[in-house]
Amino acid sequence: MQRPNDTSTIERSVKVETHRQPMPPRERLERIFAVEHLDALYGGKPAIKDVSMDVYKNLVTAIIGPSGCGKSTFIRCLNRMNDLIPSFSQTGSIRYHGQDITDPGVDPVAVRRNIGMVFQRPNPFPKSIQDNVAWGLKVLGLKDNLDERVERALTQAALWDEVKDRLKASALSLSGGQQQRLCIARAIAVEPDVVLMDEPASALDPIATAAIEQLMHSLKSEYTFVIVTHNMQQAARVADMTAFFSISRGEEGQRWGELVEYDATEKIFTAPSDKRTEDYVTGRFG
Questions:
Q1: CATH for 7-14+30-281?
Q2: Which run of H or of E encompasses 35?
């Protein structure tokens, strides 16, 4: 059998967008996360094992793989959201700008100040549109120029023109796509370094999905994005780098996620190095 680096052997069903800038060599990229030998466990049972990878500044990195492979667990490790789960534990290290944020002495709230998160389903607070965006700013005591900061975040989230005349209206009155962009505005209002997105468009219609994807394209010059997506077409459209996770099985039916392959998106979708990646991106399993 020919290996997948002979691209003629791959019956590709996913088209990689060609308008993105060519990826520079990795040694020229600025590393923002260095994940080394990360194990994540719930109740002592592994969800992911031995994950090592770097995440680079001002890129969109997509995490793909079948259900149950630990994609969401992985990105929640990047801002210590899993700390909120009593049964959770982890080993290994996650260095953010060189500092191991898994160290017990590191304040998880300070971590989340710099590494924001947008969840699968829009979760606006039952407050006004303006109060939703201003919430994090007020919590952090960033009350100077509050109106200007709110406007900037809504503008960056491509929502300002749609809501500028009804900022006092309830956020719950917005459509699903607008609510998700509001959640993005809320996340970026405090000017984080990184924005994590856990399947941010899975509950949205195609028009709203396209708007979210365009936001990532336009904002990555200011932020670093790490997204989980079950949609391979979406990963091919928006991501610069793609990590493929799969499921390993041990004795007594134990299952955990493992990182199979991580590379430039174009390579993952056109010339993967691992047969398991090829089978997944061509739809043979998953």
A1: 3.40.50.300
A2: strand 31-42
